[in-house]
Amino acid sequence: MDFPRLFALLLMVLELTRPGLPSPLRPICDLRVLNHFMKEARDAEVAMKSCGEGCTMSESVTVPQTRLDFDAWEKKNGLEQAEEVQCGLWLLQHGLSLLRTSVTNTALQSHIDNCIRNLLSINAVLRSLNIQEYTPPTSATGLEATWSVSSATDLLQVHVNFLRGKVRLLLLDAQACQQDVS
Predict the structure, then answer these.
(1) CA–CA gap between residue 43 and residue 94 (Å, rounded)
(2) How far apart are CA 42 and CA 39, in angstroms?
(3) Cβ of 97: how many Cβ atoms within 10 Å?
(4) Do 102 and 69 form a contact (C-beta atoms < 8 A)?
(5) Which one of 71, 74, 104, 169 is least enclosed by Cβ atoms within 10 Å?
(6) Distance set, CA 5 to CA 63, 105, 171, 179 (Å)
(7) How far is CA 177 from the centre of its chain?
């Protein structure tokens, strides 16, 4: 188990043993884990910005729209929100995988690998929250609420913003993550 994953697991265990909480959050709902994933995504973005050579994308990729209209988001039911987030995670995973194959800088490859693993972990969290499994389309063409990026920096910035926005909101609103206030 690599250090970031061990750290995230330790945070979850420590949260469960912390005294004074009337009803501890389930470990999968602990937003400190998501915050850790966002920090790693920002680290990848910073590494990309400082990368001199071997850090370009070979082709444009479709990414999720990160702009969020809170009124429209609140009007969607949980299933629609979950599907939008899962579609976005799939698009990001696909884009990061393409970036990974075109980048030759080994330090940056390591950052990208972490980002991909973190996206897979978020998908596992969504499954554990009983959110229906997402079936990706055969092609990203025609998906709603998407746009195209052609630079690695833009892709990583979308990744950070998507985690900070829609993923965070979905986890905050998940029924299983609501604390009992009795």
Answers:
(1) 19
(2) 5
(3) 13
(4) no
(5) 71
(6) 26, 23, 19, 25
(7) 17
Looking at the DSSP bridge assignments, the partners of residue 149 are 61
The residues that bridge with 62 in the sheet, in sequence order, are 148
Quick one: three-class SS letters along 2-60?
Answer: CHHHHHHHHHHHHHHHCCCCCCCCCHHHCHHHHHHHHHHHHHHHHHHHHCCCCCCCCCC
Question: Is 165:68 a contact under the CB 8 Å cutoff?
Answer: yes
Two tokens, residue 89: 């995670």
- Residues 88 and 39: their CA atoms lie apart, in Å, by 19
Task: Give the number of residues written for the chain.
Answer: 182
CB atoms near residue 36 (< 10 Å): 17
Q: How far is CA 12 from CA 24, 26, 34, 66, 171, in A?
A: 10, 8, 11, 28, 15
- Determine the pLDDT at residue 113: 95
Report the candidate in 76, 49, 67 with the shortest Cα–Cα distance to residue 147.
67
pLDDT digits (tens, 9 = 90+) for 97-148: 999 999 888 888 999 999 999 999 999 888 888 887 778 777 666 677 788 9
